[in-house]
Amino acid sequence: MKKVIAILISCSLALAASAIAQQDEQQQKPKKEKAQPARSHPANEAKPAPKPQQSVPKQHTETKAREKAPQPTELTSKPHAVTKAPGKEPGHANAGKEQTEQRMKERSATNEAETANKPPGPAPAGGRNQSNVAAASQTNKPPANKLNAQAKKPDPQTIQKIKTQHANFRAQPRPDKVPAATFNQSYRISGSEQWQGPQYEVFRSYHPEWHDQGWYRSRYNRVELIGGGYYYWNSGYWYPAWGYDSSAQYYAYDAPIYVGSHAEPPDRVIADVQAALQEMGYYQGEVDGLLGPLTREALTAYQADHGLVTTAVIDEPTLSSLGMS
What we know:
Blueprint: H1 2-35, H2 58-68, H3 95-117, H4 130-140, H5 156-165, H6 201-205, H7 213-217, E1 223-226, E2 229-234, E3 237-240, E4 257-258, H8 266-280, H9 293-305, H10 316-321
Antiparallel strand pairs: 1-2, 2-3, 3-4
């Protein structure tokens, strides 16, 4: 019994001593911590985990990148408008080079336009350039079928040469190229009622008549086959002799033709007039001795340019103006 009590007392004393020692250690520990304030964390001490990064959508990332990217600086003032080449983006690497080339092309085109519009200067020493002479001759040449009041009339020598060339001229019928007129008893020359003066009386009063050979020969001294049809001559004019021969009634135009007092054949006079109008640039057709549409157009243009009544026919004033009366 005494042994048991002794063991219990020994245990109690041991526990008490242990408690006192533990209390002393706890009292000394704060003093040591105050003496070492800059103590580092143990190597194995766990560090706080970093905060997870939030994922940013790709679209927003690209948008921010574009916003941060430097933008090209625009010019506030432009001395000349620059035309962008088609298909090129504004930020193209060769944009500056292309703009420079474009400016050079525009300046070159402007200089060419100014040179073309600039009147020719004095001819250089040693004569004019042959190409300039050729260009001037083409420019001054009267265009086909265009009114030209400044066209120079053929001189008397030229007129005489033309008449000599056609001394033996004979017209041939060409109904495929110059359609024939048809007989119409009520036909009147269009506009002739407005042609004032005695020299136009035969045109105002003309109307076709159909008669046989005896009727014509009893009244007129000359009835001839000319260019596919019979004509009779009366006081300076040749008239179509309708009905004289039904197999030879080709008339390019149904109207009197003035030839003067010498009674030259009408086809020869028509050929002379065609050649003279050709010299002046009015007539561009063939010299065929037929009073067809092209010849009448040339006569109209010539008469209008020279202050004559536009009859489209060879009349006395026109033949006199050409120096052929």
